[in-house]
Every structure is written in C-alpha cells, then in structure tokens.
Design goal:
Blueprint lengths: L1 H13 L16 H12 L3 H4 L7 E5 L17 E5 L17 E3 L19 E3 L20 E3 L19 E3 L20 E3 L8 H8 L3
Parallel strand pairs: 1-2, 2-3, 3-4, 4-5, 5-6, 6-7
Length: 212
C-alpha cells in the first residue's frame, strides 16, 4: 500500500538507508524490497514501521535473506537470528548498540566485521560460514561471553584476546594447528571445544590444560 511504502521510506531515511552510496549494498534486491522481506518474515506491520525503535527481536530461518543492511532500520534490536540465509557480509548491526545476541550460522560470511559498536554483545554465533581469520573483528566486544565459530576455515585464533570476558568458545572443525599463546588475556575462558582441528602436540595440550 501507499502507506506501507511511505513508512518504509521514512524508517529507512531516518537511519541513513535512503539513497546514495547505500544502494551499492543491495545486489539483486532494492532497499525497499529487502526491508519488506525482513518485515514480512517477522510479522512487522505498517504501524510498527512508524516506531521502528519498538522492534527488539528479528528471527529468520531459511528465508533466502541476503542483506543485513536493513537491520540498521531498527536501532533498539537486542536479538538477531538469521540462520541458513544467503548472507555474505555482516553489516547493519553497527547501528544497533543494544544488541545482546547475534546468530548468523550457516551463511556465506567470509569476514568478522562491523561489530565494534555492538558493545553490549554477549553471545555471537558464526558457525558454518567461510571465515579464515578473526582479524580485528572482535575488537570492542568487551562483554562477549559466548563465541561459536565452528565449521569455518580458521587457521589461527589470533584476535580472540580482544574478547577478555569470553567464557565459552566453540572453534571445532576448523584448520587450527596451534593455539599456543592464543588464550593469553582470556583468563575467564572455562568451556571450549577445539575438536576436529589439527592440534596434536603435547605442548598444545598443556597450554589448554592451564585454562581448566
């Protein structure tokens, strides 16, 4: 309807999603359709778009959603679950400072990025993607407690120390061959799963044992 389209435009423009360079982020689906897709799958109605700050939870499974940029339309999001979609980039959540939980399992993500503004994030799930390194992707996540990144292509855990309050890590089924020194600074880590990697030396076992 005309009213729905108008509210879409208003909500998007309010958070800088209306025009210009942002259009480059939408391949195969324009901005309005991406937002409509998100709203339809979550039962977000016309009147809800008039107050986007009231939306705190987004959940989609097997919906072929491929663009996270529209999440920035809802600045008060606390929980986002986008499992088994077609997502290639983590984006949009940099406009969601209240985010507490982010689930992006079984997508096509190759890089941990755009999370630095999510300073309240406590749980991050990125299993079954295409990630080769953490880089600086966890920088600023001082409250992160649970991190799952199993079934990716990680060759090291460099960067994990950026999350000093981490208590649970699942990095099973990657390509890790060493973890020596990786957990320096993560003294709160109590539960971890590194099965299905290439770690085999006794020294590695000792390094892990000291975390117990």
């Amino acid at each position: 309807t005309a009213s729905w389209n108008s509210n879409c435009r208003t909500a998007m423009s309010a958070f800088g999603l209306g025009s210009g360079a942002d259009s480059d982020f939408y391949e195969g689906r324009d901005k309005k359709d991406a937002l409509l897709h998100l709203c339809a799958a979550n039962g977000i109605k016309d009147e809800d778009l008039q107050k986007p700050e009231t939306i705190t939870h987004i959940e989609m499974v097997l919906d072929d959603y491929d663009c996270m940029r529209t999440l920035g339309t809802f600045p008060k999001l606390k929980s986002v679950c986008l499992i088994q979609q077609a997502i290639k980039r983590i984006e949009g959540v940099d406009r969601c400072p209240e985010l507490d939980r982010l689930l992006l399992n079984e997508n096509l993500i190759s890089k941990v990025e755009n999370l630095g503004q999510c300073r309240k994030l406590k749980k991050l799930f990125l299993s079954n993607n295409c990630i080769k390194e953490l880089g600086q992707g966890l920088d600023g996540l001082n409250q992160l407690e649970v991190f799952w990144i199993a079934d990716n292509q990680l060759e090291s855990l460099d960067g994990i120390c950026a999350a000093p309050n981490l208590t649970e890590l699942n990095a099973a089924s990657n390509k890790l061959s060493t973890v020596i020194g990786a957990f320096d600074g993560t003294c709160k880590l109590k539960k971890f799963n590194l099965a299905g990697n290439r770690i085999c030396s006794f020294r590695e076992v000792l390094d892990l044992a000291r975390l117990r």
